[in-house]
Amino acid sequence: MVSDTEAKAALIALTDIRKQYGGKEGSPAVEVLHGISLTIQAGEFVAIVGASGSGKSTLMNILGCLDKPTSGSYRFMGRDVSQMSADELAGLRREAFGFVFQGYHLIPTLDVLHNVQMPAVYAGVPAQAREERATGLLTLLGLGDKTTYRPQQLSGGQQQRVSIARALMNGGQVILADEPTGALDSRSGAQVMVLLNELAAAGHTVILITHDDKVAAQAQRIVRISDGEIVEDAVQPTRQEQPSLAAAETAMPTTASAAAVGSLSCVPFGRIGTQALSASWLQDIGTTLSSAWSALWVSRFRTFLTLLSFIIGVASVIVLVAVGQGNNEKLLQQIALWGTHRMYVGPDVDATTGLRGEFYERDAKVLEQVANVRIAMPYLAESTLLRAGGETFATDVWSVTADAPVVLNWDVQYGVFFTPEDDEALAPVVVLGKVARERLFPDVLPQDVIGQYLLLNNTPLRVIGELAEKGLVSGSSHDDDLVLVPYSTASQRIFGKPQLSYVSVVVDDLDALDQTVKDIEHVMRQTRRADDFRVSNSAAVVQGKKEVMRQQTMLLALIAGISLVVGGLGVMNIMLMSVKERTREIGIRMATGGRQRDIRLQFLSEAVVVSCTGGVAGVVIGLAIGALLMLWSVPVIFSVRAMLVAFFCALGTGVIFGIMPARQAAKLDPVVALAGE
Ligand code: ADP
Ligand code: MG
């Protein structure tokens, strides 16, 4: 039994430690350690030796705070370990312990330098300091030229030396080595033993676990364990001759023993012992992101597939919104061009008589009386030949009233429009569209055309104005080739025909449109005594178009949203796979002092890297597709808001779907994780 004072003085004091496996989910409980009591003083070199299956590794995991005993007490430097939180235990692993495993346990996706640095990353040591320290240790261990290698590019002995460098990174006050030579050839094994001896000589507490008596014989003290019980605990009276450094020197030329012993001192550098996360959090983010990136790079095909769903999602949001907005804008332009408050009432075939109705000016007068109708303009369109000087031009003549600029939402550019008085007086005047003017008066300045004459059906008409250019709309032919004449002049003097093409109706209140249409139909049926007319409601058509467009946009947004969610599921999938595949890595990170939040951050940052990359690529590709569509004259208006929303949605889904696997990884038990794969 270990006395209380003794336990408080010792570095490590185990009292009656028992460890049971199983006992859960019907598996039988098996006790592997049957009451181990053991004290180890600082600076001791202890070998724990025993046959395979005797419980050595179980004991070491408990000593290293990777695992918890089922019962018994463990005091480290006088503190009861069972009272410590998960983060405090991680701190202990980070600051006090250095692990050397039989299987090296290096992280395959990180290079040698970053493997060695890891405990210092978790300790919050600034990048430059930890890089120098890691490089120094590696040089000391004869691996100065291998810093950029991946673990699998090194031999077993070299990998083991890398793991020793890692164990020493934060000082490695207590070196816990579980069968460190077990996987090595005898020469590399000898080198590792030389190193451990040097570390012991330099003041490190070395706990060496081995099944090999010859290896154990190099320690000062041998604790023999059999079937989970200590059967012998002896300080070696005559310590076996240490193998000389020179023996190993040939294979490890850079190890200069005297200097090495000094430098391998266990004093932690720069008082990292008490340091929490330092101010170098920016660097830490850099480190986290770059290690996330290298982990993703390893499974790049899978990463690419996930990226793809984000790219599709983000790019489609951007393109769809851009095209939707482009179309909307075009529609608005069209509406602005012709006005929204407009509809046509014109002749149609009567269903019962089969006769086509005819419209006269009196119909316009009747329509003008309907509530909510502001203007009812008679309108007659005829195709004719115009002549002026030596030029002829075949085009449409619209016979309209002085209300035309309002009804058609069309102003004059030069000159004036005709007045109601002109209309009444059958004035022989005409207003030209831009194209008509250009064709009929090619050599005259636009201003000078005003006052000139042209011939329409042999009637001379004086040009009094030119209409503002409408330009090309929606690919249809433009209307700038029209000429407008007063309705009365046209029907009585030029064409001599009283029938109208239709009546253009402008309403005051667009919201009352449906009622107005009903009123119009009612009054038309009454006055005409037939159903030989038709109301075509362009405002409603426009509204309908808008509605269809809105629904389309919603549908497309839905599709885009779905692909983002699919992207999120993809992230979750690769993260879950990655947690599964990299269980051992998680264990290694925990053994080197990673806290739960470090592990969470690690996996979350992978999710963030994937979704950010996908988001950015999606924006870029979305812009590129939009630009291509522009080349095909599809109306496109990019929306910065849509880009931001799409990007942050991608990021958000990535993070949300990444959280679960990240938490799962962080919750793993260090010892379970280490045994993983
Ligand atoms: P050693 O390292 O001395 O070879 P271990 O400590 O690894 O022995 O194992 C001691 C005993 O505990 C063995 O019988 C082994 O099967 C059992 N054991 C070790 N780990 C577990 C575990 N996670 N679950 C159940 N049994 C285990
Ligand atoms: Mg073992």
Unreliable residue runs: 243-262, 266-279
Cα-to-Cα separation, first versus last residue: 39 Å
Overall shape = rod-shaped
Structure summary, number of beta strands? 20
Helical content (DSSP H or I, runs of 4+): 40-55%
Task: Note down, in words, how this protein is organized.
This protein has 677 residues and is of the alpha/beta class. A hairpin with an 8-residue loop joins strand 1 (12-21) and strand 2. A six-stranded mixed sheet has the order 6-7-8-3-9-10, with helices on both faces. Helix content is 48%, strand content 19%. Magnesium ion (MG) is lined by residues 56-57. Adenosine-5'-diphosphate (ADP) binds at residues 21-22, 32, 50, 52-58.
Kindly list the characteristics that best describe this protein.
677 residues; alpha/beta; six-stranded mixed β-sheet; rod-shaped; binds magnesium ion
Layout of helices and strands:
Elements: H1 4-9, E1 12-21, E2 30-40, E3 45-49, H2 56-63, E4 71-76, E5 79-80, H3 86-95, E6 97-100, H4 112-123, H5 127-140, H6 156-168, E7 174-178, H7 186-201, E8 205-210, H8 213-216, E9 221-226, E10 229-235, H9 245-249, H10 257-263, H11 281-298, H12 300-338, E11 342-347, H13 361-368, E12 373-388, E13 391-400, H14 404-407, E14 412-415, H15 420-424, E15 429-432, H16 434-440, H17 446-449, E16 453-456, E17 459-467, E18 483-486, H18 487-494, E19 502-507, H19 513-528, E20 533-536, H20 538-581, H21 583-591, H22 596-631, H23 640-667, H24 670-674
Parallel strand pairs: 3-8, 3-9, 6-7, 7-8, 13-18, 15-17
Antiparallel strand pairs: 1-2, 1-4, 4-5, 9-10, 11-19, 11-20, 12-13, 12-16, 12-19, 14-17, 15-18, 16-17
The structure holds adenosine-5'-diphosphate and magnesium ion (MG).
